[in-house]
What we know:
This protein is an alpha+beta fold and about 150 residues long.
Amino acid sequence: MECPVCREPLIVAEREGIELDVCPWCHGLWFDAGELALLAEKLGRTLAAPEGAPPEAAPTSEKPRLCPRCDKAMEKVALGARPKVLLDRCASHGLWFDHGELGSLVGQLSASGGSHHEAVTTFMGETIGASGAPPPDGAGEPAGEVKR
Ligand SMILES: [Zn+2]
Ligand SMILES: [Zn+2]
């Protein structure tokens, strides 16, 4: 499969039984429909309808992206509340998350859901190498001599 953004081959990454396709260039993530359901199960809730409502169709100026499975234009859907996360969805195949979008959504779920946060953060970090910001330059250096 190709990244819908870069058109580069996606890399398959498997974590905790969930298979993801990750773009090494833009760090976007593709979830097949079934894999997303598995993740939602691990989170203890459904990602597709966080508040019992179906995902909204989201009008946007972003260009439609093509489903990596069927090459048809995906629809934009908005999930979450504050802020809304704009995703690309192929109704038949799955969801595309731009880099950071899944983290933002999971952050919202965790804020209200509690205990799954750590597991999910770990999962995310291992999967896409996104476990927090890189340390600033020289952060590990001693600031100066400390006299006792
Ligand atoms: Zn990409
Ligand atoms: Zn498709």
